[in-house]
Amino acid sequence: MFVLVLDTNKKPLSPCHPAIARKLLKQGRAAIFRRFPFMIILKEAKSDARPIGLRLKIDPGAKTTGFALLLENGNTGTVLWAAELNHRGFAIKKLLAKRRGLRRGCRNRKTRYRACRFLNRRRPKGWLPPSLQSRVENITTWVNRLCRLAPIGAISMELVRFDTQKLQNPEISGIEYQQGELFGYEIREYLLEKWGRKCAYCGKVDVPLEVEHIVPKSRGGTNRVSNLTLACHACNWKKDNRTAEEFGFPDIQKQAKKPLRDAAGVNVTRWQLYERLKATGLPVETGTGGQTKYNRAQRNLPKTHWLDATCVGKSTPGRIVIPARPILVIAAAGHGKRQRCITDKYGFPIKHAPKAKFFIGFQTGDIAKAMIPKGKYAGTHTGRIAIRFRPSFKLNGFDVHPKYLKIIQRADAYEYQLGAQVSSPRMNPGAPTCA
């Protein structure tokens, strides 16, 4: 999208249009400072520059988090930069389970002695499982990075995915919460996440879905969220006055009572993430997932993580301008293994990790450019390298001598690629019942 800009003293300036960035680079007035996210650094100081304060919007998720830098001008907001960050929490959980199994196998076979530990260890205050802590650290890392690279004046984050307290008690009296415009969006967003955005009975996707009672109200069913599911119009009409069990789906009720794992993970980390964002010193605005869905539906925007981030909070402008350019997709890859002894699937050692992480100034994961003068692979190649402790590195599937390599960007535990672009909001005056 727009290009991030630093002056010669590494002070963040207002992002510029890609055409202006190309012109500055061509004239020699700027140089490339970083490839991902792409940004330039000016070769002169701009002491009189007054950067426009941007709003950083965040949509935290269990698997993917959306980021958007929004330039607000009255009732219009322009998305200058956007990205989606894919977490590795589930991969961490899987690796920890594998390690636990290997250690248990070693103890059972008595192939290695491990001294017993006293059961007096206490977890520190605010402790989170590694799979959840990695999500908080990933989001915090990128918020701090963007604060150094762009003139951010405020932050908006989705504090809770669903307002679960009000979901559990929809029959309250007085000035009812459900009389507000967000109640239906809270319920529908929860059900869409829980039932995988498809009909619970026939499994159809990409069709208008309706909120349906598992036990009909005429048979004593309630409006509690544990009695609600999603169904297409045909299944809802065919089910009629029967319960889900009588309709031939006895597992529907059991599944409805199961907790929503992804939403639970987001709710567990929300306050720690909120405190981390407040520590930046910037004003932090919060909102719910239902409010985000409402803002997105009112502006006829498609469902993506970064567009959800654009619509977080009450401060969302009435009109959103989206440049027709691809966004940046970031994937957390980790800094490598700390495991010194590599084992097979049965737990027996097969090799040991090298002592040194760097070799001839390179490390695995660096983005490098190779200019090979002759041979089968003569030409210019760009990609990530895998080092070997001999003068022969791997680049794009073939061997390259380090003397032909030039580092473009150091490995920073993240992988990058360009994602899909959204040129303009879709014009859909008639929204489906549950989309």
In brief, what are we looking at here?
Helices cover 26% and strands 26% of the residues.
Q: What key attributes describe this structure?
A:
alpha+beta; SH3 type barrels; eight-stranded mixed sheet; five-stranded antiparallel sheet; globular
Oligomer: single chain
Structural class: alpha+beta
Distance between the terminal alpha carbons, to the nearest Å?
28 Å
Tell me the overall shape.
globular
Question: What features would you describe in this structure?
Answer:
By secondary structure, this protein is an alpha+beta fold. It has 3 domains: about 1-50, no CATH class; about 55-110 and about 130-335 and about 420-435, no CATH class; about 350-410, SH3 type barrels, CATH 2.30.30. Helices cover about 25% and strands about 25% of the residues. It has 10 helices and 21 strands. The strands form 5 sheets. Strands 5, 6, 7, 8, 11, 12, 13 and 21 form an 8-stranded mixed β-sheet that branches. It has a 5-stranded antiparallel β-sheet with strand order 19-18-17-16-20, with no helix packed on it. It starts with a strand and ends in a 17-residue tail after the last strand. Mean pLDDT is about 80; it is low at about 165-180 and about 425-435.
